[in-house]
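Supplementary Text 2. Reproducibility record for the structural model of the 191-residue chain.

All settings were left at their defaults, and a single model was retained for analysis rather than an ensemble. We include the record here because the model underlies the residue-level annotations in Supplementary Table 4.
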Amino acid sequence: MTGKLPEITATSLLRHCYPCGSECCRYSSPIISPDEKDRIVTSYRKDFFIEQSTPTGNYFVIGRHADGSFREIDPQVGKSSPCGYLDTDGSCTIHNIKPLDCRTYPLRAVPNTVMDRIEWRFHRACPATPCINAEFLAAAQIIALTSLHRFAPETYMDWLHKYSPWALAPEAAFGLNRTEWPHQLQSSTEG
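Retained model, structure tokens:
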């Protein structure tokens, strides 16, 4: 990572996370770069990562529980066990240095190599999605692009298919023009 990334504090989504039970931390896994993994392990002295290999590069996922046992990772809500860094009260134990993709959730950048562009996707299952405003979106897009560009497109797509398939669903897509945003999102960002 180069340069300082924007903070996502102006629109804290935490008030939606606790009542939800931090469901996003209980299935799937963010994509983690080697540098990101090393920073988290150095800071917290806990390594819950598992390396994933592709022909175009490697990445890590959070594949272990806090006790070190393997966690079941199923990208369907309610089918997996919690992230090893998720505390029993539903809070993130690595919140101040959490992975880039955790910082931008429920937003994902999806490369469209055919059209040579980035498509933006929201996870509709997240209760915070309707509350996202333009300030959050602008900061999250910068961070999501930074995350995406750490990996070869094929490597990133491997992660999306295995761990974030909701982002590939057509109903998750939205345009960057505010008039193209889903009605519920557009109305929550105005004013």
